Amino acid sequence: MKRISILLATRQRPEMLEKSIDSLLTNVNDSKNVEILLAIDNDDNETIEHVQQEKFQNKMQDTYNVDIQAVLFDRLGYKNLHQYMNTLWGQASGEWLMLWNDDALMETKDWDLEIGKFDDQFALLKFNQINHRHPYALFPVIPTDWCRLIGNYSLNSQNDAWLNLIAQPLGIVKNIPVDVVHDRFDLTGNNDDEIFRTREYSEGNPQDPQDLMHEDMIKTRDAIIHKIAWYCNRIGQTETSDYFEKVKSGKVDPFAEWHEIRKNADGLGSGI
Predict the structure, then answer these.
(1) What are 8's strand-pairing partners?
(2) Chain centroid offset of residue 268 CA
(3) How many domains does the chain divide into?
(4) What's this model's pTM, rounded to 2 decimal places?
(5) Is residue 164 part of a domain?
(6) Is residue 272 situated within a structural domain?
(7) d(CA 169, CA 248)
(8) Rounded distance, CA 158 to CA 211, Å?
(9) How far is 184 from 156, CA to CA, in rounded Å?
């Protein structure tokens, strides 16, 4: 199967980070199927010291036998979360890119094999977010070819929303039977820390050029959608371009299901 690169930005949550990584690696079928790339701010001494500890290193190497790499950044902040991802994907060796959080917990055994079932497809894979019903995939898995084609991972800090808003009109979102718990304070009552309280969403103010729904952001995503539709047709995945033609002609509303889900969505940032 194709290798999976897990992209994980973290800050000042070393114990939570390790718990999240443990959940991934105790449930993976083969650690050789994955690599983990961490984005850590260079002023976050607590996390840097934790991942450098011999105990942590031995667990990663001896217990899990996983490739793990920490990339240090001058602090960019939550509003520039996409810039962390744009750097990490460029250092990834996998053919799948999996967005992950330090407050996410993997619940499904052999989750890597479930991703591998789509190795021959250009798709965005959506996990079963068991405690967070949400219109889109909060932890999307996309082919690395997506970024090679477009030249970036995301241009907005709401990385999950950015990718889903591109994938949905193409009909390439695939639900897979992999259960994930999002252990976030507004959902579970856990982890009410400064990191959670100071999150800034680039969403809800369309007049702001950095906002997810600013007209320039929409135009950029539209250009990306057309490019991916062309690419999928080029590689023989013609159902994608055919579906997009129906969207353009108004025969299909790709967001109809989203609007229904959103009525009962939980937590902050519950979709557009």
Answers:
(1) 38, 100
(2) 17
(3) 1
(4) 0.94
(5) yes
(6) no
(7) 9
(8) 9
(9) 21
